[in-house]
Amino acid sequence: MKRGGPKGKGRVKKKVFGLRRSKFCKFCVEKSTMIDYKDVKTLMAFTPERSKVMPRRTSGVCAMHQRMLVEAIKRARNIALLPFTTD
Predict the structure, then answer these.
(1) Is residue 60 in a domain?
(2) 3-class DSSP state for residue 70?
(3) pLDDT at residue 33, as a whole number
(4) pTM for the model
(5) Cβ-based neighbours of 65, under 8 Å, separated by 6 or more
(6) Long-range contacts of 80-87, Cβ-Cβ distance < 8 Å, separation of 24 or more
(7) Residue 20 falls within a domain, yes or no?
(8) How many domains does the chain have?
(9) Residue 67 belongs to domain with CATH number
(10) Chunked in runs of 10, what are the mean pLDDT values of the chain (87 residues)?
(11) Are 43 and 83 contacting, i.e. CB atoms less than 8 angstroms apart?
């Protein structure tokens, strides 16, 4: 492939590996106003096996619901509904 001069002619294009799907917020789709800390099944979906909280870019949750989700996970951990770590 040719490399261009100072004017940028003949630039090398980057290859895009796969198309990214647009992520959507699960809680916005369900129109839930609050995330309950007692709903352990839902909270477990957002904590992988190492018991860390999934980031927004991975889970696809919007910023408002991510803050609510983290707070609910922390509350559930404090009253021993969720583990802090795995053994």
Answers:
(1) yes
(2) helix
(3) 87
(4) 0.72
(5) 25, 27, 28, 35
(6) 81/37, 81/38, 81/40, 81/43, 82/40, 82/43, 82/44, 82/47, 82/51, 83/51, 84/51, 85/50, 85/51, 86/49, 86/50, 86/51
(7) no
(8) 1
(9) 4.10.640.10
(10) 61 64 85 92 92 91 94 96 85
(11) no
Structure tokens at 84: 């802090």
Sign, CA dihedral 32-72-77-55, equals: positive
Q: Residue 32 belongs to what domain range?
A: 26-78
Residue 7 lies in a domain: no
Task: Give the whole-angstrom CA distance, residue 39 versus residue 32.
Answer: 13
**4 within domain boundaries:** no
Euclidean distance between CA atoms 58 and 81, whole angstroms: 23
